[in-house]
Design brief:
heterodimer; A: about 325 residues; mainly beta; 2 helices; about 10% helix; globular; B: about 100 residues; mainly alpha; rod-shaped; protein transport (chain A); membrane (chain A)
Chain lengths: ~325, ~100
């Protein structure tokens, strides 16, 4: 009897200490915050859901892997492309081109090159020098004079921050920094200077992320304010909404969309405040064979674009 | 029928509000104020209803095409997913039964 009582009293403090221990784990450890996502991918969930690559015409992509790391790609596109015009009317010119590409993908090095029949050449390089430092470069050469451009980025990843420095042709310099402030919230800033146009700008961004939702906001001194919110309703469905405001030109756009990732297909739909609705469906017909349907209806401009494509490999 | 002397130019025919004496009953009815007001109301109603029909038609077109683009593929895909799930369930139940049956025999 006397032995029971002390054991009873020691059992309760043990339970109390266990709950106190879990409470300490739940209290955030500010020294061990997770590494934030890169600055250019801040609004990536909203972008992926709300801005699929809609196209007009026929698109055919064939990717053939020659090796574990090396693959070739052939791509055909036939359809009207829009020419930016000053008047309210959209001018479309039918174009067709064939694109040949080669990809080399290694854990540390990625090289991608593309050549098109209309004379353009694209190249992209991503090289992970060490665990923390990586270099990215991309370049595009065209037949038209003064339309070629290239850019180099140097990324450094720290324990709970990332910083990036970029240089482009035309004396374009930029730097960005993103830091995890709590396990869910990260804040970022960027600055850029364009020598050719004599413009410089400053921007701030914030991203709050939980298991179920992501909210991100971005402000820039070029006059752009962009807010986005993505809610993951279930593991197959997510809903996204986006708000963009340009306080120089007083342009406002809001859009709402859904993203359904089912087993055989991925369907993205969105409706805009400019009276534009788009839908993008990628369906897996067979192993390695995907069919793509894209639709974009602009009720205010009466511009209707429908596209159909096939992706093999 | 006797026209009043026209003063320099065209003038609108006079619309008398009071019924003219010595005219037949039909003329009196058709020129009464009730009938003229009724005619005005009918033409207004026709105008408004035409506008309403046109804007309803436009709204129905926009709603219909937007529904067709946004929701019809979704319904089709969700239906296919359900069919696929049912097929899998059926196959799982089919494959699940045989191992026990041979064990019994």
């Amino acid at each position: 009897m006397a032995g029971l009582l002390p054991s009873g009293t020691t059992a309760i403090p043990a339970e109390a200490s266990k709950t106190a221990h879990t409470k300490a784990e739940e209290k955030t450890d500010y020294m061990n915050l997770p590494c934030p996502i890169p600055f250019e991918e801040l609004q990536r969930e909203a972008l992926m859901s709300l801005k699929p690559e809609t196209f007009e015409g026929l698109r055919f992509d064939f990717t053939k892997g020659l090796n574990q790391k090396f693959s070739l790609s052939h791509s055909v596109f036939m359809g009207p492309t829009e020419i930016p015009s000053q008047s309210a009317e959209t001018i479309k010119i039918p174009t067709a081109h064939y694109e040949f590409g080669a990809n080399f993908i290694d854990p540390n090095l990625m090289l991608i090159g593309r050549v098109l029949t209309d004379g353009r050449v694209n190249a992209r390089v991503k090289w992970d020098l060490t665990d923390n430092l990586s270099v990215k470069a991309n370049a595009q050469l065209t037949n038209e004079p003064h339309m070629s451009h290239g850019m180099v980025n140097f990324d450094y990843k720290g324990k709970d921050y990332r910083s990036q420095f970029q240089m482009g042709n035309g004396a374009l310099f930029g730097a960005s920094y993103i830091q995890s402030v709590t396990p869910h919230l990260s804040l970022a800033g960027e600055v850029f200077w364009a020598g050719q146009h004599r413009k410089s700008g400053l921007g701030y961004a914030a991203r709050y992320e939980t298991d179920k939702m992501v909210a991100a906001g971005q402000v820039a001194s070029t006059g752009m304010l962009a807010l986005s919110y993505v809610q993951k309703v279930s593991e197959k469905v997510s809903l996204a909404s986006d708000f963009m405001y340009n306080y120089m030109t007083r342009d406002v756009t809001a859009s709402v969309g859904y993203d359904y990732i089912l087993r055989q297909c991925r369907l993205r739909g969105k409706i805009d405040s400019n009276g534009c609705t788009t839908a993008y469906l990628e369906e897996r017909l067979n192993m390695g064979l995907n069919i793509i349907l894209s639709a974009e209806i602009d009720h205010s401009k009466k511009d209707y674009k429908f596209g159909f494509g096939l992706t093999v490999g | 029928m006797a026209a009043q002397p026209r003063r320099g130019g065209i003038s609108l025919p006079e619309r008398s509000s009071a019924p003219k004496p010595h005219s037949n009953i039909l003329a009196r009815i058709t020129s009464s104020p009730i009938v003229s007001r009724g005619k005005q109301a009918a033409s207004d109603a026709a105008f408004v209803s035409k506008k309403l029909l046109r804007s309803t038609g436009k709204a129905a077109w926009i709603a219909g095409t937007t529904f067709l683009i946004l929701f019809v593929p979704l319904i089709i895909e969700m239906d296919r997913e359900q069919q696929f799930n049912e097929l899998e369930l059926q196959q799982a139940s089919l494959l699940g039964a045989p191992p026990t049956a041979p064990a019994r025999s």
